[in-house]
Fold this protein.
Amino acid sequence: MIIERNMERTDLPLVVIPACFPSMVPYLERSLDEIAAKARVRMHTDMTLDLDEILNRLAGADVAMTTGIHFTNDILDRLVPTLRCITFGGTGIANFVDIDHAHDLGLMLCNAVHYGDNAVAEHTIALLFEITHKAGRLDVRTRAEGWPGSDITEIGGLTMGLIGFGGIGHRVAELAHGLGMNLTVWARHPDDETLQQLGARRASSIDDVFATADVVSPHLALNDATRGIITASHLDLLRPGSIFLNTARAELVAPGALEQRLRKGDIFAGLDVFSPEPLPADAPLRDCPNTVLTPHVAWRSGKALAGIVQQNVRSVIAFLDGGSYNVV
Amino acid sequence: MIIERNMERTDLPLVVIPACFPSMVPYLERSLDEIAAKARVRMHTDMTLDLDEILNRLAGADVAMTTGIHFTNDILDRLVPTLRCITFGGTGIANFVDIDHAHDLGLMLCNAVHYGDNAVAEHTIALLFEITHKAGRLDVRTRAEGWPGSDITEIGGLTMGLIGFGGIGHRVAELAHGLGMNLTVWARHPDDETLQQLGARRASSIDDVFATADVVSPHLALNDATRGIITASHLDLLRPGSIFLNTARAELVAPGALEQRLRKGDIFAGLDVFSPEPLPADAPLRDCPNTVLTPHVAWRSGKALAGIVQQNVRSVIAFLDGGSYNVV
């Protein structure tokens, strides 16, 4: 479906939403009036990743509001000069656009931040509960097998080791603390006062976290300094029975290192992120034991979707007013 | 396997463990030396529910240490007078023995208490996470379907409504508070100071809880006053999207009432307890939509199992010394 506002007002700039995640549609639809006060708006309510189709839909657009669309440099070249601003429904946009090239073309790039801190932190804990209490997989087994026996593991009293202490890492620390876990935190710029309030120990190194925690979870942005920051040597420090969680980015871990460590069969992993995504049918991770795999859904709560749209709309309004908001 | 200690010392009383849950074996085995300081001990390490076999195994026993064994009055009659004390690896033992009849026979009955408060409280939260974040079922779908799309629901900001505020209810309140949930609590004898510390609202009635909470979870012991205390009318008060959890006892809910409410399709349920157990293959609950079912595992953590054994052993030692501990 295509929803349009003000299309007769050719004096106004054109804002196009070329494709939508289904669950984002209601939030975007509710925001159209606000944008229509300053622009023509065209919203395509279906999702497509077909780049020719996306090019067609963005023809003549001044602003593109996008989520999940990967822009090649060739496409950017073809959209400029009419296109002047792109909003992205996410924080880490380097996977979706060549930021330097876009800036060279004079494009304003806007992202959304912190909208999903609590959602992602909760999903990190959800993965931990599924590894220790197995509620979802026991549900499936109870339906298939009748009445399967199973033991659970209490998480209270375990030590959560966090690598990174930004918005999400901090929220994971609060939730883990609330569940009676001990905390060990490594961060480049730790907030000692907050660590103290949570009774958290400041780790001296990433090695320290891996060697002492029962559960290790990285919460770092992906960039040149963090790509592959978790190595096979770190993973080798995990003691039998330890749990590795990842709701941040798969590329924080050196390629193949996690699969290799998991194959020993003595640790557990709860993963929401993979490289590449979607996770291929023949990905070695699918055959590793003791894993819980979810398809990059940690951020996809109603609250987070509403937050993304609210921030992206604010960026569009700011751009149309000659200002800026959430510019990358 | 049969493990024996002191069997030549026929001057000492005989303590028999007639059957074991597999996961309890290591904890019981470690406790044998302590008992053997005061008694002959025979431990059967396999599990059986065959009553003739259990009768054979308990022949001549002064003390029976049991978990999961249902004693009929006929069996009690046949075990008395040599049998003088039974320990149960659980709290609510009325389902396993006719307490009045046992007392008439002069038997001392001992249970274990609070060993599983944190484990059961955690599992309550685990069921809540599985309903809202679906990690376990998404894992199964990711393996079967490749890369399923799914939204999640944040639990932070939702209201947890608790019915009962004993050891488990209190711990659920603490965990929910730590996860950023609001609390509404109904209890016969609420601890106002504790409620205040958790920022909990004291509900005026069970109706009040069902009408105002997003998540409702009963934590009451099962007895004549609480059997069927949750009625169809209560469940009708749940708003669409609400979640009903039960890790206490299925019999707290009026027979059939939950199935009837679930069939409307607009609420969710996370259940670890059923009536009867094991849940029959043709139980109507299995066909109700929006449910997560786990096979009464909430209490089965290593910590809880160790706690049960520790308390049961303390009861046995106390009995052998002419005293009493955890006597029902």
Remarks:
- The two ends of chain B are 31 Å apart (CA to CA).
- Residues 2-115+302-320 of chain B form a domain with the Rossmann fold fold (CATH 3.40.50.720).
